[in-house]
Predict the 3D structure of the following.
Amino acid sequence: MLLEFWDAIKLLSNLDSGLAEIVLLTIYVSGSAVLLAALLGIPAGTWLGMQKQGKVKGLTRLVYTLMGLPPVVGGLIIYLLIRRQGLLGTFGFLYTPTAMIMAQFLLATPIVIGMTSVAVRSKGKNIHETLVSLGARKGLILRSIIWEARYGILGAVIAGFGRVVAEVGAVMMVGGNIEGKTRVMTTTIVLETRKGNFDFALALGLILLIVSFIFNVILYQIQQGGASDDE
């Protein structure tokens, strides 16, 4: 164990080219998926959070259910859509980074929507009533609510990234884990462990831990910033 760990440290210090390629592809796929999830999820979550709870109770429950969508189920849905016989089969997305982005987008979007709606609902009611009484326009009201809920919204985006960057099943199902094309950190860890290349797998595991730690620190700082503003 100690020998493999030391070899993993050496791989990290030498910045192995194969290792760097896998890390960069992981960041590209997960980053793109979360960016797209934010573009859809923040407006959708804001709208959901501004509605009366009784009016959107069913939709809210659906979003919360999808927040816990098993990755393999998400991967299966995307696979059925992009396989040759599927609705999007003619585009040739299967076993490409695009397919992996689609799968991770499906997993991240409900998280962004759900957490954004909670943040907006917790901040928006009083602001909405105050600005309406002052005769403010809808655009100003919307911008003000989003600004007040910004810490929760940013936390939603980071939580979405944390959900997908460590995901294995969905990306392996639609990406195929092809060397130099669709091989990301999590799928490589599984493969290299099965092959007995524990030093390479450990090196990737350490990088994944570092990435997760960084984003958890950012999330904590965002939450602390929001708490400080409320004091």
